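Table S7 (text form). Paired inputs.
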Amino acid sequence: MGNKIINYAQAILDDYDTCLDIDEIGYGIETEHSKTLKNSVYYDCPVWKHKSNRIYTIRSPIDIHLSVDVESKSLNSDTLNQKQFDEYLSGTFIDDKNSWCTVEKTTIQILIPQFLFWTKEKNIWIEQRPHPLTSHNNNFVAIGGWFNMSNWTRPLSFSFDVVDTDNPIIIRRGDPLYQVCFYSSNLDDGFILKKSKPSKNVLRKMRNFTSIKFLFWEGIPQSIKNKLFKNEKSKCPFKFLNRFPIS
């Protein structure tokens, strides 16, 4: 078994250039095993322990209370001021078509907390998945997914589907939001998470790739999209996007 190094930074609203200290803006990253009661009947089970030591929990740094009015397609909060509301809630879903809010499904994206993960290791995958308690405790289910983070550098988004729009979404500071897992070609590998400040090269890759997603996603050929999922040598095929400043 080997240990793979995963670097990470936490910031407010993509401010990875300053990378504020985690203690000032929220919670660090903890394994599920470290937060489990030691008197649990399965605490020392090697099967559960092997997996839980490779599952990490992301927690909310602030209180967030939201209510949805499906009929008027509006979103309200009694914990966020207007500036926070405008900055933390993404306009991605609040468009002219009101596609974020329908009778069948309501989806919300929140831009806090922000975590960026990157690595020099080869063929490492990152998975973002729902935490099992949020449906019961907070009235939402995080939207999951995974990709090859050795090839694709981008921050994790936090989007969720509301379970019941007749009830509020109540997130308290410290509540779990979602889980993060890492995978290598050898599932017996361990992972060491290291808080780091991203280099300008890492930031450039992140901004190039996120610019591709938001500006040009529909026009990207399948061969480029495959970099998300295949173990290929990482090179940015959109060099013209380097005009985006690192500021």
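Next pair, protein 2 of 2.
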Amino acid sequence: MLIMGGLALSLNYLPGKRSRVLNEIKKEWKEIEKKRLSADIRELYRSKLISAKPNPDGTLTLVLTDKGKQRLLKYDFEKMRIPRQRWDGKWRIVIFDIPEKQREARDSLRDKLKNLGFHELQRSVFVYPLDCGNEMEFIIEFFNIRKFVRYGTLDSIDNELHLKRIFEGLIG
């Protein structure tokens, strides 16, 4: 929980979201037994999900290994949802051109966008009405496709009435 909380804090730039993450970490921390925590840390270390980095003052800093980061990303990725929020009248657009040699990442990105509720305007162009910048950053990093994906915000789009009907449950 603490490791996931740290990752969530690093991916969220909005103070309100950070506050919620910190409150959740605080609640979880109170429930953790110290013995159990020690055992869990030892197990993470043995599984090579974390490594210990000695500090000059004699303490240790626990750091996620690449294997640990992949496991954490996979865990969060499967549970990811875009939080409900008031619509600000803008459209979020995702455009991608991922090469054939990365077809699996391209197809998985397309499936994830559909799963999150995005509307497919064209084969490689998706639109969504709510702010989802943090979630898109996470997805792009998860698939390691940053140079092939663009994310932006539109003030208007010519088929806005059609999109409003599609997303009427989200935007009211």
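The chain has two domains: 2-79, 91-171.
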